[in-house]
Amino acid sequence: MSDEMRNVQEVQVEETEKKIEKRPEDKLFYHWNTIPNWLCFLRIALIPVFSVLFVKGYYIPAFIVMIVAALTDLLDGKIARKYNMVSNLGKNLDPLADKLSQMAIVVILIIHFWEGYLKYILALFIVKELIMIIAGVILLLKGLRPAAAEIWGKIATTIFYIFMIAIIALGGEGSALYGVKFFEPFMLSDTVITVMIIISLIFMLISIASYVPGYFKQIKEIRERDRKNKE
C-alpha cells in the first residue's frame, strides 16, 4: 500500500471517529430524564436518611427506608430493559448508587459490631468498593467507560443485600426488629451472622476476579490506542 493511500485511509478513519464522538446518543446526559434514573437518584438520596435514622436509634424506620432503597434497585433495571429506557447516565449512575448504598450499609454494620472481630471482615467490603471506584475513574479519565456488571457481580450484590438486610433486621441487640416479640425466635446468632458475612465476602472476591479480565482488556485497548496516536 502506498503512503498516499495509507494517509487517505487514516484521514477517513479520523473523520469517522470524529463523527462518532459527535453523536448525541453517545453523550452522558442523552435521554437522561427517565424513570429508572430518577429511581437511582431516589436510592442515592435515601442513603443518608437510612444512615441517620439507624445511628439515631430509629431502627424500624431505618429498616423500612433500606427496603425501599433495595426495591428501587430492583425496579430501575427491570423498567429500563422492559420499556427501553436504558441510558448512558443510567449505566454509570446505577453502579454508583449500588456502591454508595453498600458502603453505607457496611459502615452501619461496622458501628454495630464495633466491639467484635466482624468489623475487620466488613472493612474488606469498603476496600473492595474503593478499588472498584478507583479502577472506574482510571478508565473514565482514559476515555473509556467501566465495564458493565458481570453475572458474578450481580450475584454477589444480590447475596450482599439479602444477608445484610437480614443482619440489620435480625442481628440481635441493636437490630431493627430486636424486641419485637413476633421476631424473637428468628434472631440470628453470632455464628450465623459470621457465616453470612464470610459467604458475602467470598462472592465479593469472585465478583472482583470476574472483572479483572475485562479491566485489563480495556487497559490494553488504551495502550494500543495511545501507540497508534503516537505513530
Beta-strand content: under 5%
- CA radius of gyration is 22 Å
Biggest sheet descriptor: none
Helix vs. strand class = mainly alpha
Count of discrete alpha- or pi-helical segments spanning 4 or more residues: 7
Question: Low-confidence spans: pLDDT under 50, at least 5 residues?
Answer: none
Give the overall average pLDDT.
Answer: 79
- How would the global form be characterised? globular
Q: Please count the beta strands (DSSP E, at least 2 residues each).
A: 0
Order of helices and strands: HHHHHHH
Task: Throw out a few tags for this protein.
231 residues, mainly alpha, globular
Q: Could you explain how this protein is built, in words?
A:
It is globular, with a radius of gyration of 22 Å. It is mainly alpha-helical and 231 residues long. Helices cover 76% and strands 0% of the residues. The protein has helices spanning 3-22, 35-55, 59-82, 88-112, 118-141, 151-170, 190-230. The protein is built from 7 helices and no strands.
Task: Give a quick summary of the entry.
The protein has seven helices and no strands. The protein has 231 residues and is an all-alpha fold.
Write the layout of secondary structure elements.
Layout: H1 3-22, H2 35-55, H3 59-82, H4 88-112, H5 118-141, H6 151-170, H7 190-230
Helix pairs in contact: 2-3, 2-4, 3-6, 4-5, 4-6, 5-7, 6-7
